[in-house]
Specification:
This protein has 299 residues and is of the alpha/beta class. The protein has a single domain, classed as 2-enoyl-CoA Hydratase, Chain A, domain 1. Helix content is 45%, strand content 16%. The strands form two sheets. The protein has a six-stranded mixed beta sheet, with helices on both faces. A three-stranded mixed beta sheet has the order 5-7-8. α2 runs antiparallel to α3, α2 packs antiparallel against α11 and α5 crosses α6. The longest helix has 24 residues. It is globular.
Length: 299
């Protein structure tokens, strides 16, 4: 595939340069802080299949181009299909099916994201998130799907889905509590608080914090150390650790996450969250009372 939203390259092991076994995925939408739009979701889905069938790969690094890792979902491209844009979204010549098409393409958007993220979590090579700046929303969820997380001292991390009118939809509600504990995970999820790299390391969200200008060198050094170990030992060690890690992962869980986000994106609170974000203002959530607000006339 001709990747545009992602850059994919395979590099040599620093300890054995002729052995091309370390893959690097770079999210390439720096003008949008690498927000995950529709194309990036599709490209990641396809690329994960390519990686899964490449037995030579031992480590895969995930990072972002420019000043950040990922700002999460791209609300600018999400607004139109769910009816939260300033103008009526043009799906083309759908006629009487136009409103139905909006629901369909919104649902498809989230289904593709979940499918791609499941594949990312299940990749056979060891995966390392090189967090080079802000990683929020599904950007943070991508980090929790990786096996290891190394952060720049400029990194900022947060689960901002709920305050934005959404919810963690791609494993965040499952993985974050296992990394930082249930209470801390709920605090981050329900408040949307952004934490710095030092706090992320202190609570166990990242394994290590390094100076920003040394991030990729440190990550490559770790990747090289892992890749220099026996192939099957590394593969089976990861497989066994992930087997125990995923004891609470189920198809029912994935299905409930997908059903929840599909329902939420049909609500006026979600639309208000998108409009508030794009308008750079505080959201005025009223659900479930948009039509029958019972608390006075100030709304």
């Amino acid at each position: 595939m001709n990747y545009k939203a992602l850059k994919w390259e395979v590099l040599g092991n620093p300890n054995r340069p002729d052995e091309k076994c370390i893959g690097v995925i770079t999210m390439c939408r720096p003008e949008a802080l690498n927000a995950v739009d529709v194309r990036m979701r599709v490209e990641l889905d396809i690329l994960c299949d390519e990686i899964r069938h490449n037995a030579a790969l031992k480590v895969v690094i995930l990072t972002g181009e420019g000043r950040g890792f990922s700002a999460g979902g791209d609300l600018k491209t999400e607004a139109g299909p769910v009816g939260a844009g300033d103008e009526d979204f043009d799906f083309g010549n759908f006629g009487a099916y136009k409103e139905l098409a909006g629901y369909f393409f919104n649902d498809l958007r989230h289904a593709v994201l979940q499918r791609a993220f499941k594949k990312l979590e299940d990749l056979p090579p060891v995966t390392i998130a090189a967090i080079n700046g802000p990683a929020v929303g599904i950007g943070l969820e991508m980090c929790t799907l990786c096996d290891l997380r190394i952060a720049s001292d400029r990194a900022r991390l947060g689960e901002v889905a709920v305050p934005a009118g959404f919810l963690p939809e791609s494993g965040g509600a499952r993985n974050l509590p296992k990394l930082v504990g249930i209470g801390k995970a709920l605090e981050l999820i329900l408040t949307g608080r952004i934490i710095d790299a030092a706090e992320a390391e202190r609570i166990g969200l990242v394994e290590r914090v390094v100076p920003h200008d040394k991030l990729m060198a440190e990550v490559m050094a770790m990747a090289g150390q892992i890749a220099s170990n026996p192939y099957l030992s590394v593969r089976y060690a990861k497989e066994l650790v992930k087997m125990y890690w995923n004891t609470n992962r189920s198809e029912e869980g994935w299905r409930r996450e997908l059903e929840a986000i599909m329902e939420i994106t049909r609500t006026k609170d979600c639309h208000e969250g998108i409009r508030a974000f794009l308008g750079k203002r505080k959201a005025d959530y009223r659900g479930p009372y948009y039509e029958n607000w019972p608390f006075g006339d100030d709304k």
